Amino acid sequence: MTRYREFHRRSIEAPEDFWRDEARRIHWETPFETVLDRSNPPFARWFVGGRTNLCHNAVDRHLAERAQQNALVYVSTETGIERRYTYAELYAEINRMAAVMRSLGVKRGDRVLVYLPMIPEAVFTMLACARLGAIHSVVFGGFAAPSLAARIDDAKPALIVTADAGARGGKVIDYTPLVDEALARAQHKPPHVLRIDRQLAPERLNASYLVDYEPLREQFFDAHVPCEWLESNEPSYVLYTSGTTGRPKGVVRDVGGYAVALAASMEYIFEGRAGDTMFTASDIGWVVGHSYIIYAPLIAGLTTVMYEGTPIRPDGGIWWRLVEQHRINLMFTAPTALRVLKKQDPALLKKSNLSSLRTLFLAGEPLDEPTASWIADALGKPVVDNYWQTETGWPMLAIQRGVEALPPKLGSPGVPVYGYNLTLRNEQTGEVCAPGEKGVITLGYPLPPGCMSTVWGDDRRFVSTYWSSVPDQQLYSTFDWGIQDANGYVTILGRTDDVINVAGHRLGTREIEEALSSHTAVAEVAVVGVADPLKGQVALAFVVLRDADRYAADEARAKLEADLITTVDRQLGAIARPARVHMVSMLPKTRSGKLLRRAIAALAEGRDPGDLPTIEDAGALQQVRDALAAGGKA
Ligand code: ATP
Ligand code: MG
């Protein structure tokens, strides 16, 4: 562990020296004067005075050496389209898009709201924004109109870029009616809406405000648009958090710090080298998509694979076939996708030649032990869990194999990443927890480069939301619980919002979920706390069974419910015992695979589940309603 320890220590004790060295990884048009400005805590400014550009670093800079290497490989199992763009071709497409956007009046500092499905034009748009110094704000394609309207009003874009439609699981989702309704609801009226016409929507609406991209692209086919050299701390993008726990926050990212942090992470965490191929199965609407579909792999000179479709269409072997066909070296996805694959025929994994694959990375939600062991055994390659948030932009906890390949620990995303002064704190006193003691995961000041610089348009919310939970100390709260062992490995115990209070005992719903998942009948589980007149709160569980047919009969279900309750009793004690275990065939989740416990709890207490912009499948909420209504019967 010594190499890792020493590396981490240096990054915390001498951050200026540490990051000055790392900053050499990117191109600075004008060198920075100061590595770190800490004059206005909790705000931190990295590489002050330096001028650079994300698009230049991701694309232009590679043209001398790798113009003919693939930069972007695009595969859609929804439309059957597959395209490859070399760095030279990507450069040309970005310049066309940038010229079109400029002709529509977009300039440095303007916001551009990107409401697009997973198509190459989304990459062109984001990088064209970076080129022009415009601030992109990507909103999940298919978000409901009210959520889109709220983001339009918050970001006040000068341009919206959208498409006629998205597609998912073979279903076409018309975007135009959603954009129509959002524009009608929003106070802010963007002057232009640019449409990428995929010719997918069955009834192509032709709202008068829509400008089609294709004719403009032709017009600007040979355009060259120079990069705007931005000061390192100018904003590059705004990205709203998932909203799992409340009103989404517009996370603002800088330019220089982000580029440096991502470039360093490609070596120390992902071990990705120029010429490698990386497949991040995520969505551009999520932070993993921003950082590891687009910016990091391109900044480091890799080929990035962008995929539109689900992991199980045409069948559960599709991702593994992509690995074979495109000689993918690094893969990155969320545990939820693996749980889906595990339910399919796992033998599909063995049918493809996976020899090119070096490592599988997972992030976004807790990686349960059964899934972790299943995939590690099946692949026979390292599986690296990593923990982070929209706010941080890149991992806070991981085994940093490029620094030292520490042994993985099941159930833990690893040890604190260099640059992060990560400690677990007692929620009340703010004191550092002893090994094995549960606490809130916090970060010391300053946050390393690449982390959020503020909340869009609301510096005060940045301070009051993130920096005020531990009294008298300059600490950033992640709002996640964890526990750290004597070797530094942290296990995530859930969100601080997910704590329930049963008769004066504080319990993490996550721990109850772990106990239930250990039962072989359980595939997935969500536990929420609901108000109870006697105990304050009680736990309520919703489980998805591995083999629902076995428990079709009422008796079998009742017996299983009793069995599950006993399992919790045995592992955590009777106090943690769920009042009921409801059986459903799916759980409500966001598009990025996060469980919507907030919505389940609301339904269980008879409240309106509220704004659920990213819900994956509304049918899942209906199942929760039905299960609750069925009441007495399990
Ligand atoms: P909001 O902040 O609006 O409620 P959100 O927190 O769901 O939304 P994200 O930033 O996408 O939005 O999610 C980050 C959170 O996901 C983390 O704070 C943590 O709770 C969880 N998470 C991410 N990676 C992991 C991981 N490897 N293991 C366990 N939990 C993880
Ligand atoms: Mg969050």
Largest sheet: 9 strands, mixed
CATH class membership of the domain at 503-631: Alpha Beta
- Helices, by number, come to 19
The mean pLDDT is: 93
Radius of gyration: 24 Å
Q: What percentage of amino acids are in beta strands?
A: 15-25%
Q: Which outline best applies?
A: globular
Low-confidence stretches: none
CATH homologous superfamily caption of the domain at 503-631: ANL, C-terminal domain
CATH topology-level fold name of the domain at 503-631: GMP Synthetase, Chain A, domain 3
Helix content: 25-40%
Features:
634 residues; alpha/beta; GMP Synthetase, Chain A, domain 3; nine-stranded mixed beta sheet; 19 helices; 32 strands; 24% strand; binds adenosine-5'-triphosphate; binds magnesium ion
Question: What does this 3D model show about the protein?
Answer:
The protein is 31% helix and 24% strand. With 634 residues, it is an alpha/beta fold. The chain has a 9-stranded mixed beta sheet, sandwiched between helices. The chain has a 5-stranded parallel beta sheet with strand order 7-6-8-11-12. It is globular, with a radius of gyration of 24 Å. The N and C termini lie far apart (50 Å). The structure holds adenosine-5'-triphosphate and magnesium ion. Magnesium ion binds at residues 241, 245, 389. Belongs to the ATP-dependent AMP-binding enzyme family. Residues 511-594 form the AMP-binding enzyme C-terminal domain. Pfam families: ACAS_N (PF16177), AMP-binding (PF00501), AMP-binding_C (PF13193).
